[in-house]
C-alpha cells in the first residue's frame, strides 16, 4: 500500500487520529483540528512571503485560511524518506461554494472584498518580477490570435475545431481589438500605481474550488499563487468564472459588484478597469492558444465544445457590458 506521505506526519507536534485520501492530498483528523497534508508546490524562496501573509490574515482575527503548520524543527516544508517535500495546512469542515446558489456566490464576493482590505504588505517581503502591463498583454494576445488564424487557414484539412474557430474569428478578433483600444484610451493603466504605493496583494486563484462554506463562515484556501498585483484581477476572475455559468446575467453581475463595493469601494476607475477586462475575449484567446501549442493530430471534443460555447455567448456578453458597465463595443 502506498504511503502517500503519511509517514511525514511524525515530523509534526500533533497527534493524528485518522487520515483519509482526498483529491490530491490527505485529510488528517488531529488533536489540533482538521489538517491537510499535500505535496509542496511552493518555491522555498517564496515561503517567507507566504508565511507573513498567513500571519497577517490570522492575526486579523476574522479569517479561516489554510495556514501552513510548522514541523518540530520549526520548518514549514517537510521531506519524506523518498525526498518528496510536503506541507501541512490547517483545514476546515465544509463544502465548495455552490456556483448556482446566489447567496453563496455573494458571500464569496463579500469575503473577497474584506480579504483585499487586509492583504496589504510592504513589497520588500517578496522579490517581485517585472509584470507586463495589461496593454502589453492584450497586444501580445492579439498577435497570437492572428498567428493562430493564419495557421488554421493554411491547413489543407480542417476539423471541427478549426472550422468553429474560423466561423467566430472575425467577431472575436474585433472585440479583442476594441478592448485593446478602450484600454489605451482609459485611466486603467493607473491601477498598477496602487500596487506600488500600497503593496496590494492578490489571491491569485480566487475561485469556488478554494472557498469552503462552513457553519461558522467561509474558509479561504489556495494561497499558493498569492502575489503583489492588481486586486481587481481576483474579482474579475471570480466573476467571469461564475457569469460564464449564468449566461452573463446582468442582474447577477450588478449584485456581485454591489456586494464587493459594500466591503471595498469600487471607484469609477476601478469599474472602468473591470469593464475592459470583461470586454476582452480572454476565454477565446486561451482556448485558441492552447490549441496552437498542442498536439493537433488529436483535438479533444471538449475543446471544440468550449470554443462553441464562448462564441455563442458573445451577444449575451455584449448585453452584459452595456447593461452593467455602459460599455458598447
Features:
single chain, 329 residues, alpha+beta, six-stranded antiparallel sheet, four-stranded mixed sheet, 48% helix, globular
Question: Could you explain how this protein is built, in words?
Answer:
This protein has helices at 47-59, 102-118, 134-154, 160-184, 191-198, 232-245, 250-263, 268-279, 282-292, 301-312, 314-325; strands at 16-22, 25-30, 33-39, 64-65, 68-69, 78-79, 85-90, 95-96, 201-202, 211-214, 217-220, 227-228. It has 329 residues and is an alpha+beta fold. The strands form 3 sheets. Strands 1, 2, 3, 5, 6 and 7 form a 6-stranded antiparallel beta sheet that branches. Strands 4-11-10-8 form a 4-stranded mixed beta sheet. A two-stranded antiparallel sheet has the order 9-12.
- Which runs of at least 5 residues are low in confidence (pLDDT < 50)? none
Beta-strand percent range: 5-15%
Gyration radius, rounded: 22 Å
How many alpha or pi helices?
Answer: 11
Distance, first to last CA: 58 Å
Order of helices and strands: EEEHEEEEEHHHHEEEEHHHHHH
What can be said about the biggest beta sheet?
A: 6 strands, antiparallel
**Helical content class:** 40-55%
Based on DSSP secondary structure assignment, what is the total number of beta strands? 12
| Structural class computed from helices and strand pairing | alpha+beta
Mean pLDDT: 91
The shape, in one word, is globular
